[in-house]
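Annotators were shown the component list below and the corresponding predicted structure, then asked to write short factual statements about the assembly.
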Amino acid sequence: MAEHLVTPWEVKGDIDYEKLVKEFGVEKISDKLLERIQKHTKEIHFMLRRKVFFSHRDLKWLLDEYEKGNKFFLYTGRAPSGPIHLGHLLPWIMCKWLQDKFDVEMWFQFPNEEKFLFKKELSFEKAQEALNENILDVIALGFDPKKTHFLIDTKHADLFYEHACKVAKKITFNMVKASFGLDDSTNIGAIFYTSMQAVPAFLPSVLKGKNIPCLIPLGVDQDPHFRLTRDIMPKLGYYKPSIIHSMFLPPLSGVEGKTSSSSSDKNVILTTDSPKEVKNKINKYAFSGGQPTLEEHRKKGGNPDIDVCFQYLRMLLEEDDKKLEQIYKDYKSGKLLTGELKKYTIDKINEFLKKHQEKREKAKKKINDFIYKK
Amino acid sequence: MAEHLVTPWEVKGDIDYEKLVKEFGVEKISDKLLERIQKHTKEIHFMLRRKVFFSHRDLKWLLDEYEKGNKFFLYTGRAPSGPIHLGHLLPWIMCKWLQDKFDVEMWFQFPNEEKFLFKKELSFEKAQEALNENILDVIALGFDPKKTHFLIDTKHADLFYEHACKVAKKITFNMVKASFGLDDSTNIGAIFYTSMQAVPAFLPSVLKGKNIPCLIPLGVDQDPHFRLTRDIMPKLGYYKPSIIHSMFLPPLSGVEGKTSSSSSDKNVILTTDSPKEVKNKINKYAFSGGQPTLEEHRKKGGNPDIDVCFQYLRMLLEEDDKKLEQIYKDYKSGKLLTGELKKYTIDKINEFLKKHQEKREKAKKKINDFIYKK
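Structure shown to annotators:
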């Protein structure tokens, strides 16, 4: 098993989430905490129930505040560089659910300079093309335009920059070197960047002139940005943001590493893939936990824990716990064949994407409703 | 004589401008070049004639372009942290003259985050108070509001940040370390800052959709920012900006170092000083090139080259070459006494400040005419 490496720029190796919890100094989301959430939300989202969102920072405090009548806002984001794949959707789907259940605002940051600064070959113009596409995927998830505000770093820089400087003054190069693995050959925009990512965690408090708690659902790789931010925000007079961390949806090639659209479009399901492309990708590339031959599979059974299709069902596509459990058992016993599991997953993905793509098309007319008006 | 040190953050020691020309790799402004300027301006400003503006980069090219009908724009700026003193005015007075004579636009940057980022003790709020005051001094110099645009970094960051990132991507930490003497304990806002200072050198070209030559009159200590910028701008498709460099008006304590308002308000003449304060400061603190006793002075004569009052007259206050020469001769011969030279300088300063303070008061109603409208 390869040593895992998790930074905001790179995820490598077989990720040991238990180890990550210790390394990052975060807390696991306990069943007791889920019960407390359920008091407010009535039901509990399957991504929470199944611990796809597995850890948190200060979630108890956030609920304390909520129960005192001090509502939080949600903050998450997307640094555009390429198309959206299923893995990207996890934190956003969670945001949509939290927005509905807690009736809260969502501030969604599009740091349209981040990938430009960190990827040598990416032009600013290519990043903007990606931005225009990515925006559609976020809108398609059904956020309430009245309670959702998109912030685009370069467009809203007049709101960001002053506050980014206030954050930046408290961060030395030494501190970012350690957290992000930068060095003296890193460009000075990339060095500064984390200050920009910090701002939406307190910008609503600035704009509304009062201190509002913040909850950030994100992929665990983005945690280092906020470890720094959390230390700094109280020094600027704001609450530390609370965070919930999701696991990575595995790439089609297997459970090692994070689903990355930049590695290869063949290795992920894009939100714009056609039913035929989905079928082809899953059949051709989705790593299977099944046995080499039908006979052997019937006899020994498959391993759903390393089967990519099963993981996609568990983490994203199959909301029904009973169905999921049945699939798990049947696959493990050898009753359910790899081809059958793949067929089921393909249908589930295509069903999801059909609706998503329709909403994505309609989103083109709604963009202005979501972009924050200064 | 102390070794000189000239960076944008620190000027120390007795400045050897000849040596600086070699160190910085700039060209001296020759009489031939002045003649060429005079063809367009009819007269030549005494600060050019007396080589207070002593060196340049690409000024010949700028004039080539101008003669082809390709007008330049002016760019200079002020990082607010405290009050304005006479030394600050040198490049701005030159800008005003160049604007009038060449009928060109001026873009004036107020990087209201710079000093906040570089000075540990300076709060953002204090820098903004200084900004509001500093703006008045610039307006008071008489710029044409139709052709003058103030850019305030945090307010106009939505115009700046995208382009600052494009600059930043081409500058590594190694490069700024070398140029600005930063280290790993420098904050990441200060590291990024030079990208923001680069932007106004090509922002008018961006906004107008065509490549416009740029001339930057500045104190020679600011040159390192633009050495970097000049390398990068052609890579982004813009002309290298042309620069003319001014010497530093010496502090009252003597010709060592740059007049710095941050060191002590006693050591400089502020634009808001009363006639009494001016009289007191000059009499008490202005370093004299005269002899210890009246008898000795009459006999040996004074040294105008190290006399602060004489330098103020030469660099800023006495436009009349003949009068200045007479003062030089009379002081050197011992005919003119130190008390008399001080009296003359005090009157000159107070005459200048009376008008400046009146215009400064009127400027309060004109601020909006100067701030660039997005």
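Statements collected:
1. The interface with chain B takes residues 113, 116-117, 124, 153-158, 160-162, 164-174, 176-177, 182-192, 194-195 of chain A (CB under 8 Å).
2. The two ends of chain A are 50 Å apart (CA to CA).
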